[in-house]
Amino acid sequence: MKVRILTLFPEMFNGPFGTSILKKAQEKELIDIQCFNIRDFALNKHKKVDDYPFGGGAGMVMTPQPIFDCHHHVTQMLNLNEPCKTIYLSPKGSTFTQEKAMELAKEEQLIFLCGHYEGIDQRIIDELVTDEISIGDYVLTGGELPAMVIVDAITRLIPGVLSTEASYEDESFHCGLLEYPHYTRPRAFNGLEVPSVLLSGNHKDIDMWRRKQSIELTFERRPDLLKGLQLKKNEAQWVAELSKKKE
Ligand SMILES: CC(C)(C)c1cccc(C(=O)NCC2(NC(=O)c3cccc4nocc34)CCCC2)c1
């Protein structure tokens, strides 16, 4: 997969993309991530990339020309015969989910456009953006961190990026439930023990315990995730008992 990121702050990406799994994925050529500084494409003498909003109001808006020319340069270099999926990170976008990550992980190339200030000129969105995606409802300073989140979520889904055992952490493995509690050595830490079932070696009991923990945790903290799930009879019984307790 080729990922191209259009941003005013390419240096922000050095940490996350220069570390651990994302770094290794690039070294293994499973993903090719390149950042482009929109400011390099500004034609005005002072390399200005923002201007006052027509109609007045607080804040500044990113001007269309540098973004348009940067996007044109990137699409030329990708040398495609059809327009490239161009994702604008935006609070107005559809909320990013694991399902969306799995959908995007199938793409051959993706362009991410990161806004700044109050946002970008609408004409860019109308002409170049194919998808607007949001990572959640809070105010941020720019679209860069959302772009990193989405690239992280997508990259780990590319075959070969995660070692086989790690890839079982996928939603399909837990089928959308919150994860059971994790424990590792030592068996006693500050006088705190590990649940004995996990030390029993009885994998049927362990799997049952973990499944019950996941269902109870999901019921308590994210009942919305439970709604869409197919539970076995005994599991549905657990949920019914939890609901009764809650009444
Ligand atoms: C209702 C609520 C969501 C709180 C809201 C209303 C109005 C503005 C803002 C706001 O944050 N504007 C600033 C910018 N925000 C984001 O880019 C951004 C923010 C959040 C999630 C995201 N996922 O991708 C990009 C995201 C837009 C231009 C530069 C940064 C947020």
Describe the protein.
- With 247 residues, the protein is of the alpha/beta class.
- The protein folds into two domains: 2-157, 3-Layer(aba) Sandwich (Alpha/beta knot); 188-246, tRNA(m1g37)methyltransferase, domain 2 (Trp Operon Repressor, Chain A), CATH 1.10.1270.
- Helices cover 40% and strands 16% of the residues.
- It is built from eleven helices and nine strands.
- It has helices at 14-17, 20-27, 64-78, 98-104, 122-128, 144-155, 164-167, 171-174, 203-221, 223-227, 233-246; strands spanning 2-7, 32-37, 50-51, 61-62, 86-95, 109-114, 131-134, 188-189, 192-193.
- The strands form three sheets. Strands 2-1-6-5-7 form a five-stranded parallel sheet. A two-stranded antiparallel sheet has the order 3-4. The chain has a two-stranded antiparallel ribbon with strand order 8-9.
- Strand 8 (188-189) and strand 9 (192-193) form a beta hairpin.
- The protein is elongated and about 70 Å long.
- The ligand CC(C)(C)c1cccc(C(=O)NCC2(NC(=O)c3cccc4nocc34)CCCC2)c1 is lined by residues 89-91, 115-116, 119, 134-140, 142-143, 146.
- The site of ligand EFY has 16 residues, from strand 5.
Number of strands: 9
Number of helices: 11
Order of helices and strands: EHHEEEHEHEHEHHHEEHHH
Low-confidence stretches: none
For the record, the CATH architecture of the largest domain stands as: 3-Layer(aba) Sandwich
Q: What percentage of residues falls in helices of 4 or more residues?
A: 40-55%
> How widely separated are the two ends?
50 Å
Question: How is the main sheet built?
Answer: 5 strands, parallel
Beta percentage is 15-25%
CA-based shape? elongated
**Order of neighbouring strands in the sheet with most strands:** 2-1-6-5-7
Family: Belongs to the RNA methyltransferase TrmD family.
InterPro entries: Alpha/beta_knot_MTases (IPR029028), tRNA_m1G_MeTrfase_C_sf (IPR023148), tRNA_m1G_MeTrfase_TrmD (IPR002649), tRNA_m1G_MTases_N (IPR029026), tRNA_MeTrfase_TRMD/TRM10 (IPR016009)
Enzyme class: transferase
Catalytic activity: guanosine(37) in tRNA + S-adenosyl-L-methionine = N(1)-methylguanosine(37) in tRNA + S-adenosyl-L-homocysteine + H(+)
